[in-house]
Amino acid sequence: MHRRWYQALIIAAAVGLPACVYVPASSYLPNGGTTWSTSKSEASARLTVSLKLDTLKTASSVMDGAYWQTNQVTVSVLRDHQLLDIKTFAVGALSADKLKLAFENLSEGTVQVIVEVHDPDGVQIGEGSEEITLRAGRKASLTLAVVPTQTDPDDDFGNDPYPSPRPLAHADPNAFFVSQMYDTKWNPGAPAWSQNCGPASLAMVLKAYDMIPPLIGTPEDPQEFIRKTRRAMMGNEDDYKLSSLEDLERGAERMGLYHERTYGFESVRTAVSLGKPVIVAGNPVAYSGRFTSEQYAPFDGGHFVLVTGVTSSQVYLNDPLSRQGNITVSIADFKRYMAHQDWNVGMTAYR
After folding, report:
1. What is the distance, to the nearest Å, from the Cα of residue 256 to the centroid of all Cα atoms in its chain?
2. Which one, out of 88, 117, 161, 265, has a CA that is 20 to 30 A from the CA of 28?
3. Does residue 331 belong to any structural domain of this protein?
4. pTM of model > 0.90
């Protein structure tokens, strides 16, 4: 389900798709104050965020007991729809009522700080948001009260209108193909193996629209492109940490993409016919045996691929495990891929 860019989704607990699937939730309330002091840096700003968590311990019955579990806190810093930095950490019964964290090397200008707290079941239990103007060569302090999340029964994001997708910047799917693993042509900087199928699939969508993830230094480096996409999705650059469909949705939103869930092959076919790239979960063992090891890295397990085209009999894939770029599989094989553990699910991601 689509959320606007400013409705950041943070995830905490696994329930069971390719690697781990979380339940997203999002909203925020403003609270807090700011102070200024001099910083040693003359070229950038430093922001210290103090989180007041005591309100979670004294909340109403909706919150009873929730804080005494291990909950996930994510703090995001954004400017003009772009994610500048993100930090995640766990809090529990022994955590202090007030926690501090620092964001370094931020450029001058107004930023928005968003904090969200999710319990182990992925339910959002706390939130906060505030804007602050940063000045080069100074450090700023922001105090943010984390308050219990309020649910609005009339807030039905599923009724948001979806715009027509923009044309891709590249018609040839090989122009935006990247591999999740080492390959002399497609990703010479990648490790020999990784769990980057999700970040690589979303990275290919970004490249298809000539977009780049935040915090990237060298967009031409496929591996850095994947890792910065992963950071926007999950707050880490760990090549071996599994990703979920909800991670992909969160990353898409943070980078200004629309997204919708797809269920079943016909939903994928329809989305592609409308010009929407689709990332689909499944198991590539359904078709990997039709390729040599020089053409495809065999794998049996949960995986993500980017569907770039569908004909009456074939499906075109930018599969991060391919060693030859875009590949073609039969519709029958792709349906078997989707049917892994009865998932049959994917998501569009488009501008």
Report:
1. 11
2. 161
3. yes
4. no
